[in-house]
Every structure is written in C-alpha cells, then in structure tokens.
Amino acid sequence: MMRTIKKLTLSALFLMLVAPGAAIGFADSDGGFKPRVANNDVTNQASLQRGAKYYMNYCLGCHSMEYKRYQRIADDLNLPEDIMLENLAFTGEELSDMVNIAMPPDDAEDWFGLDVPDLTLVGRSRGADWIYNFLHTFYLDENTITGTNNKMLENAAMPHALWSLQGIQKAVYEEDDDGDEVFVGFEIVQEGRMSAQEYDRMVLDIVNFLDYAGEPIQTKRKRIGVWVLIFIGVFTFLSWLLYKEYWRDIKK
Fold first, then answer.
1. How much is the pTM?
2. Beta-bridge mates of residue 183
3. Rounded distance, CA 112 to CA 157, Å?
4. Which letter, b or e, does each residue of 72-98 get, where b requires 16 or more Cβ atoms within 10 Å of its Cβ?
5. Is the dihedral of CA 44, 78, 195, 6 positive or negative?
6. What is the CATH number for 43?
7. Where is the chain membrane-spanning (predicted)?
C-alpha cells in the first residue's frame, strides 16, 4: 500500500513539473538563468540522421552550410544517395553541390537586420551546449520586432523557427528578498505539437548534427588519439629500457 502511494505521489510531482503552465528549467537555486549541458553524442548515427532531417526541414530555409557537400553528409551519416537526394535536397541539388540557400544576403538584411549566418562551423565556434540552450530558451517579448527574445542571445534577430513544435513560452520572474526580479523558469502559454521530452530529443538531434558538421572527423580523431597515446606509452617504456641498457656499464 505504501509503495503504491509513493508511486502515485511521484507521478503527481512529475506531472506538475511538465504540465502546461508550470515554470520549467533553466534557473539556478539562487535565482537567475542557468544554461544546461547538452550531453550530446556525435557517435549516435541515428541521432545524426534525424538531426540532418530536422536541419534541412527547419533551418536550411535561412541558414546555409556552404562548407558542406551533400555527398559528404550522405557518406558520413551512412545515408543512401537516393534517399539523400529525395528527402534532404529539396530544390534539385546534386550530391556534389554545397548546402546553400536561395535567399539573397540583401533580402536577409532587409528582413532580419543582418545577413543570416552560415552554420557549418557553429558547433565549433559556439559549442554544443550553446546551441542546445539557444533552441530551448526563446520566450515571448513584446518589446522586440519578432515578438520573442532568447536567454542565450539577448535581442536575437532570429524569430523562434521551432515554435510550432515546442510551443510558446514566457519567462517567469519573482521578487527576491531585496525586491529585485529574478528569473525562475519558463511557463508554457501555448502548447506545441511536441511534448517537452520529444522537443528536447529533437533539439539534441539538431545539436548532434551541427556538432558533427563543425568537425566531421572528430570521432575518428579521438579514436586515433587513443592509439597514439598507447604508442607513446609503449615507445616511452622501450626508450627507458634502452636507456637503462646503455648506462648500465657506464655506471659501473
């Protein structure tokens, strides 16, 4: 009986935490915004494939990856060429083409106030954690042109492109003992098509893909690095034995 009550209590607490209207995440215990750690895994090929799909569908309309070829993505992510062309190249591109966009830079400046950045290297320049938090922390702000703001990049010119999936949230503030307003989390004011868990997984997939794109060889580099360290260790040991052999007679 007690075990059942405990389960019901835990379930109720969980629902309270994830239910619409509850203040959720990204605040530390002392008040204020606290970024989360992404903990993404670029060795997860299924996640990389999903991330490529989400990127091509939701990000490529504005953000190019002009240093990546469709062929390289297909090869690295183990995607058949016909699947790549049919599902991830939407305007008749060839596999040898770079992942570019059709939006002219001048139009981008007119619409957003600046040229939209290329995201090939954003995984290296900003880091996976920054991207993860950026895609999670859009919130309503009537003082901006787009109607939204972002905790990772204040006054971002980019609107929340994934709002239909995440939903619309507002930032929640409370007064501390000194009467100052401190950030305590986000409150969902309009449901999206995804649950919080589904949206989080999608963001992690996009983060994985951008992390991979910024350094495609990173997993191979790390794997080779282990063998290099082993070689250095063995070589150092053999060098020490040779040193002992050379100096044995001299010390006598």
1. 0.79
2. 173
3. 6
4. bbbebbebeeeebbeebbeeebeeeee
5. negative
6. 1.10.760.10
7. 224-243
